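Handout, tutorial session.
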Amino acid sequence: MAYAEKRGKSWRVRYQLPNGKYDSESGFETKQDALDWGRAQETDVQRKVFVNPSDGRKLFGEWVDEWRQVMDVGEMTQQTYGSRLNAVILPKWERTPIGDITSMSYRAWQAQLKAQYKKNYVDAIEGLMRMLLDDAVDEKLIPFNPMPAGSKRKRGRHVAVDTGDEYVWPTPRQARLLAENARLLRGDQWAVMILTVAYTGLRMGEVSGLRRDQLNLLGLEYGKSLRVQWQGQWLTEPAKHTVSKGETLETIAALRHADPKRAEDVAAANEIEVGAKLRAGQKLRLAKGFTLLPPKYSSYRTLILPPFLGDLLSELLAANSHDYLVFPSQRGKPLRVDDQFYGRFWHPAIRGQDEEPSRRGRPEQAALPAVEGLADMVPHGLRHGHKVWLDGQGHPRVAVEERMGHKLQGVEGTYSHTSPEMELGIARGLQEAWEKSLTDEVDQTAEWRERRSS
């Protein structure tokens, strides 16, 4: 039962907590104010909605440490969350009591984020912050999430929202021209990589993690396929692996790192010998660096290839010397989409470059024409283009989304299914798109064929 005590010129109230113990709050001007406040807390205790005011004094950084301990997400998501927390969120809020984060202080920080970063990144930061504060509400550290609701009407002047399409995506002809530039720049493998993304819709992680054993290139004209089984990612923290029967450190390194020589790194991460005998079900830490992980959203899928792409991939595997990966880097290592990838390959391929002679150890640089209309396209734009092509050809939505690695929600997702005829129809539509791209400009078609034969 709440009761009030005189303390100097003010009043203190003591009230009962859910565990039966008493807590107190000071600074009330009158006895009645103190009693009203204390009785309100005890009413919340009875209604099981009580939030202890002292819990709100926990520092935000302390809450993040606790939250990380129970976070159950994949390795890539864990790394992404850690990066956003360390780079943006914690520098601002780490030493702030979680109960002192107000709507106004959050809005001021939000304005700073929008001035400093691109919209997609700001949205990602806000999504993580909302998750942290929602979980704090669930744990009764704070009574409500101070972040403004997205649909709530805001004061202030109207700000126009850009509703334009954020991604630049190619037509089949533009994808072909980009592939031609990629071939001149780095060789056949890079041309085939561009066309593979454009005509399968793979994510770049799925491209870098595409293993030779995921390609089935034998069979009839439309019998060739590609299995999406892994995505390749560069991790700063070790991933985990559950040992299957008969596996060794060498086979695990070959499977998850695409390099059996990295068995020594896996052994070091687990403080065991390279030749140690493993048991089925044993949990291992993999090495840091390039690692093959399950595809995003566990979107395993098998894609029927248009015949032209199956032929190009067959030729590539015959010429490619890497034991595991279909698209390794120039030096035979796992592909990394970093600043060097953009500066030395992607940007010259889409924006063109001037011819430069060889000098001071640098190889000569072939002149490349810019692919008109693609100057601002990122690699993910090829995946967007794939979706646009399939929608434009009128394929069933369920088949398109399944090929993209998406799952339909609601009733449509429950009752819609992709048939073999739908998959075959997509492959035929993509083959027609490729053949049409070759006839869009006859002179460039001849040039493409001449380049392939040279």
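The second record follows below. Compare its token runs with those of the first.
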Amino acid sequence: MADTAAARTRLAALKVAPAGTMAGYSRARFTHWAEQGGKCDTRETVLKRDGRDVAQDAECRAVSGTWKSLYDGVVVTDAGKMDIDHMVPLAEGWRSGASGWDAARRKAFANDLTHPQLLAVTASSNRSKGDQSPDLWQPPDRASWCQYGRAWITVKSSYELTVTEAEKKMLTTMLDTCAS
């Protein structure tokens, strides 16, 4: 993930454009939770990566562990109460450039374990966020704004997605919470 200075540079370089249309969008057009090997799909891989002391069964499902949700600071010990959030939601990706991608690029975006695109968070915080951009939804735990903004910018920049004027303004506010 980009540090604060790099995130500011990347944010300045992002193309500002109005949100695109949702015409043609379907979550199914983004093949997600792809197989990652060893019976593990993307969801289980992220739960293992983001948790502490995670034990998995023979099918790779997390059966125990501890997770701390970035968005609300809640600590969870039941994997069933965790969602895997797409930092830049699939629908938001669609509105900001993914509508022009081929199926392989959409699948890579939906299963990206390299960039900070996937994060284990509480189901309630993920559902509260929905497909909203930072100008419309911010993590309730303000202490997470720096990391959230840096992650959002890293993903948008890596995939050459656009930002709206309001989104860019809120991302600047989020970066302003970072320690210098």
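Points raised in discussion: The beta strands are 35-37, 40-41, 52-56, 62-68, 75-76, 82-86, 118-122.
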